[in-house]
Structures are given as structure tokens and as C-alpha cells.
Amino acid sequence: MFSVMVQNAKTGTMIETPEREVAVINQTFCDMFDIPGPPNQYVGLKSNQLFLSHSPMLKDPARFLKTVESTVYSKESIVDEEITFINGKIYARDYIPIYEGHVYIGHYWEYRDITEKKKAECDLRKANKKLEMLSMKDGLTGLNNRRSLDKQLEIEWEYAQKEKEPLSFLLFDIDYFKAYNDTYGHIQGDECLKEVANIAKSVVFDEPAFVARYGGEEFGILLPRANQYEAIKMAEAIRQQVEQRGIIHQASDVFKCVTISVGIMTVVPSENIPPISIVHQADQALYEAKRTGQNRISVYSHHKEADSNV
């Protein structure tokens, strides 16, 4: 019954004597290694010679032969060791040393085709990676979203803290955007958001900047290794580009085209300051820019909150 089971198994099976002579081998094993049948003709032959003559089928034959020898020498069971063939097939290999009582009497090898399983796992990883990427993007503008900005902030904060370099953050929004939506409708409002997002992307194109839609009509830009002067220069370039684009906004009380207000915070991170503080302080600066007229830039000051308008 055992012999019939082995010969009809869908797994490649070979049993060796302690002297590495083939005792049992089935057709599936021969098919895997492209060994011409019938399998019974190999009983009594040295298994290492059998492997050696057919190892070119393997992607890494030298490693395969080495692991076979080391496994037999150690006599320690292995499970699910992956073996890749040049035809793209992937097999999981099991090895069991066979004992009768305390007497060592041979080796048991079993190979299972896991090609489809590995392909499914690979496809699943790709799908998960794609979903993760999509979850980090804003569906409307194509920019990074707030979640991805928060993660990037942690990374840049840690690096800037270690290197003692400045880190700047710009937070800006569209002036009188609710009035824009009320006047022109939400579809046109979405187009306006996309246009402003494209302007921001084009201005920071050659810079190591991380641009994100922070929420609603708010956008955030993280500027690693940028001092306050460089942050102001970047903010002013975006503000001017938006104004010069001339997107009609008759409901605005500051300008008859779409404009933005920007809050800026620059800091050299330290251990006693939480990363989110740079966002909160840029938000305070943005509030000050709104309060003092809009279509302008405001820089957060540690001594007097957001008191520097540009």
C-alpha cells in the first residue's frame, strides 16, 4: 500500500539508503527533474550522481547540490525549502532522516509544486502594494494625502534631528474657496483644486519637496533641509503663480482671481519637540495670513506667534 501510494503521489518522492543509494523513487520525481522513466530503473543507483546529471535544470545547481550534501550530513529535518528551476517552476522541498529505533536507515525527500501558490502570493503582494499606494494618494488631485504627509514628516523629522538640519513646512489654502464653490459649483471647485495642485507641483518640480493635499482646500509642502529664507522664496513663487494663472473668482473679496494664503514654519528638530508641532505652528501662521488680508505669506515666530507677514 505504501509503494502504491508513493508511486501515485502528486509529490516527487525519493527514499535513499544511508549509503545514498536510491531505494524508492516515483514518476513525479522523475518528471520534475526531467529524468527519463521508468523510475524503477534507478533503484540502487547513487542519488548524488542522479542529481548531478540533471542539476542543470535548476536555477542555481551549485547551491542545490551543496544544500543536499549539507542536509544529509546534518541529518536535521527541513520543511518547505524553496527550490527554483530554470523553467520557472518552484518546488518546496522536505527532508526527513529515517530512523528505526536509534538506528539511522536512510533519507526521505519530498518535492511539492508550489509555483501557482507563489504566483498567487506575488500577485497578492503587488495588489496590496498598489492598494497601499492608492491609500496614500489624494483621489482628486493625484497629490500625496494627509496620511502620507504625516508618515513623511516622521521620516524627515528624524533625519533632520539626527543631522541637525532645518526643516520647513508650508501650509496654504485657497482664499474664499467656499464662496468659489457657492458661485461656480462643486465641479468647477474640484477643477480649481486640481489647477492649484498642478501649480504647486510645477513650482517644486526640481526640489526635494513633499507636496500633499492636507484636506479640503488646504495643501501642505514639506521642505527638507530648507531654511526660512528658502521656504519663503518657495511660498512666494507658488502664491505668484496662482495669482498669475488668473482663475476668475468674482466672489473673492481680495482679488477677482483665485489666490492663496500661506503659513510657514521652519525649525531644527529636537527630541523635546513633537513633529506635529511644525504643522500646528504653520497653521497658526496661515491663520495670521488670513486675518491680515489674505493673498499673502505669514511666517511663524516663536516670540510672537505668526507676526511676520510678507
**Rg to the nearest angstrom?**
33 Å
Structural class: alpha+beta
Count of DSSP H/I helices:
10
One letter per element, helices H and strands E, the order comes to HEEHHHEEEHHEHHEEHEHEE
- How confident is the prediction overall: mean pLDDT? 90
Q: What percent of residues adopt helix (DSSP H or I)? A: 40-55%
β-sheet strand percentage: 15-25%
How far the N terminus sits from the C terminus, by CA atoms, comes to 89 Å
Q: Tell me the overall shape.
A: elongated
Describe this structure in words.
The protein is α+β, with helices and mostly antiparallel strands. It is built from 10 helices and 11 strands. Strand 7 and strand 8 form a beta hairpin. It is elongated.
Give the SSE map.
Layout: H1 2-7, E1 12-16, E2 22-25, H2 27-32, H3 47-54, H4 61-74, E3 78-84, E4 90-100, E5 103-113, H5 115-135, H6 146-163, E6 167-174, H7 177-184, H8 186-203, E7 210-215, E8 218-224, H9 228-245, E9 260-267, H10 277-291, E10 297-299, E11 308-309
Parallel strand pairs: 9-10
Antiparallel strand pairs: 1-2, 1-5, 3-4, 4-5, 6-8, 6-9, 7-8, 10-11
Helix pairs in contact: 7-8, 8-9
